[in-house]
Specification:
328 residues, alpha/beta, Rossmann fold, N-(1-d-carboxylethyl)-l-norvaline Dehydrogenase, domain 2, 48% helix, globular
């Protein structure tokens, strides 16, 4: 399988960072952005000013306004935009090609994972899931970052990981696509909770407890979906959960802090807050847990906070008053 050219669809911070990483790995990269004007500005200045201001792009990245195919395709649009994006792409351009999905979220209405959306819209594409502890600024700047790349064929996944690996960006091949997808989606939900604990000044101990119980809840969800709990011990599970639930660089953590401080979701969004995937994913994850008959009190609690049905202090008090059980 030829793996020389890469097309990253989505000109936001994460798409720009992944394009930069692929170019650093020696690939010939096109970054697909919304307009010809924006593509021209990026190519002239060598900076995607609206996404990663101040970060110069390496020479291997060329911005374009339309997708025309590549050996490797990386989708880097928000989770709720994936289906709409794919609706505008000829499935023949994706047939037999590895498509790496980097959005972390479940689709509103369908409860679908990102790879399920891809296979619905382009049945002959080869789905891969890219997830793990990573911030766009770190990846684009060439700071050491390790992630998980999950696919269905072990040999092909290893080849794709090697093609995208550079001096500072290290994708580790894995075979549990379901587990990696669910972990990536749910960690954003738990990051909202941890940010809310910070915003409400409930203390680091409460945050640590939420991370630990969230990890256990995530394992129940992953195994109920047919994934492996072992996946959660790695980068896509514990690694990403820890980073997102403890850093103010996380958009979900920032959004949670605003919720914890008493702001309502609509007001936070109206203020121009950056996209937090967990806001849309929380109610979807709650519905998915109910459909699987999985006990998920943290997901339910975050869904209630996001919807304005409860505040984080009340939620934490309720969780602390749940019946005591043996931990394992």
């Amino acid at each position: 399988m030829r793996l020389e050219t890469v097309s990253v669809i989505g000109g936001g911070a994460w798409g720009t960072a992944l394009a930069q990483a692929a170019a650093m790995a020696g690939r010939d990269v096109t970054l697909v952005v919304r307009s010809a004007e924006r593509a021209e500005a990026i190519n002239m200045s060598r900076v995607n000013a609206s996404a990663l201001p101040g970060q110069r792009l390496v020479d291997g990245v060329t911005a374009v306004a339309s997708f025309s195919g590549a050996d490797i395709i990386i989708l880097a649009v928000p989770a709720q935009a994936t289906r709409g994006l794919l609706a505008g792409i000829d499935p023949a351009l994706l047939a037999g090609r590895p498509v790496a999905l980097s959005a972390k979220g479940l689709e509103t209405g369908t409860l679908a994972r990102q790879s399920e959306i891809l296979l619905d819209m382009a049945p002959d594409a080869l789905p891969y899931v890219l997830s793990g502890p990573s911030f766009a600024g770190d990846v684009a700047a060439g700071r050491p970052t390790a992630v998980t790349l999950a696919g269905d064929d072990a040999s092909d996944t290893s080849d794709l990981a090697a093609a995208l690996a550079g001096p500072s960006f290290r994708p580790y091949a894995a075979d549990d696509r379901i587990g990696v997808e669910i972990a990536g989606a749910l960690k954003n939900v738990y990051a909202l909770a941890c940010g809310a604990v910070e915003g409400a000044s409930l203390g680091a101990s409460a945050r640590a407890a939420l991370i630990a119980r969230g990890y256990a809840e995530m394992a129940r969800m992953v195994t109920a979906m047919g994934g492996s709990a072992h996946t959660l011990t790695g980068l896509a599970g514990l690694g990403d959960l820890t980073l997102t639930c403890t850093s103010v660089q996380s958009r979900n953590y920032q959004f949670g802090m605003a919720l914890g401080a008493g702001q309502q979701t609509e007001a936070i969004l109206a203020s121009g807050a950056k996209l937090a995937e967990g806001v849309a994913t929380a109610p979807v994850a709650a519905a998915l847990a109910r459909s699987l008959d999985v006990e998920a009190p943290l997901i339910d609690a975050v869904s209630d906070v996001v919807a304005g049905r409860a505040d984080i202090a009340t939620i934490v008090a309720g969780l602390m008053s749940r019946p005591l059980k043996r931990e394992h």
